[in-house]
Design goal:
single chain, 3-stranded antiparallel β-sheet, rod-shaped
Length: 225
């Protein structure tokens, strides 16, 4: 203990010179261990609670490794978390707040660890939302405009429209309903005529156009919408 007490006397009342170097090395090692941290996190199934060192995934290991590295280059420091390490460290550091400095560094590393995990969770959530939007898009019915045969119809609760100029007032009609109406009218016409019918818009007395299907060959005519 004489060497350790000499260590305490040497830095009593001052900020120990190892603090910034140790803090910097710990942060760099933790950030460099991102893959290992996230691998442990995934295996746990849920992340640690912020501010609780007992549930840290990597902080204690990082602090111990960098503390040992400082000792290996000549710093006379007690062991962390080893046999009698906590008691020994308290006896050496209590007079010059070195324990408080270690706790400060530990909290910074815990915050850094949580930031890495939260960033990972955000990325996972965004990826899941993207995949869900793709799946939902696959399930949607896209109705090709029967007038221009180029664009898909746009649907909302009050009307159906197309960039080509088609605009029909409706009330909560869905794409699948419109698709079924178009298909049924075409099939109905095909039962008695082999020529291709055409779709067009005609105005009615309410100034709201209707979509109709007609054939000049067989005089077929029917209102679709």
């Amino acid at each position: 203990m004489d060497a350790l007490h000499r260590h305490r006397s040497l830095y009593k009342g001052t900020t120990p010179p190892w603090k910034e170097e140790y803090r910097k090395r710990c942060v760099e090692r933790l950030k460099g261990s991102r893959s290992r941290l996230l691998d442990r996190y995934r295996k746990m199934g849920e992340g640690p609670k912020s501010g609780d060192p007992t549930t840290s995934l990597l902080v204690q290991e990082v602090m111990e490794a960098e503390w040992t590295a400082l000792k290996s280059v000549g710093w006379r420091l007690p062991s962390l978390w080893g046999p009698e390490g906590v008691v020994e460290m308290w006896n050496v550091m209590k007079d010059n707040d070195e324990l408080a400095l270690l706790e400060e560094i530990q909290q910074e590393l815990l915050s850094c660890e949580m930031s890495i995990i939260e960033e990972y969770e955000r990325d996972q959530q965004e990826e899941q939302q993207y995949l869900s939007s793709i799946v939902e898009g696959m399930d949607e019915v896209h109705v090709i405009c029967p007038i221009c045969h180029m664009s898909c119809l746009n649907f909302n609760s009050h009307f159906i429209s197309c960039p080509c100029g088609l605009h029909i007032n409706t009330t909560n009609i869905t794409p699948d309903v419109v698709q079924n109406l178009l298909e049924s009218r075409v099939l109905e016409h095909m039962e008695g005529c082999n020529y291709n019918p055409v779709f067009s818009l005609v105005s009615n007395s309410d100034f709201s156009p209707n979509l109709i299907i007609s054939c000049k060959v067989c005089d077929y005519l029917s209102i679709v919408l």
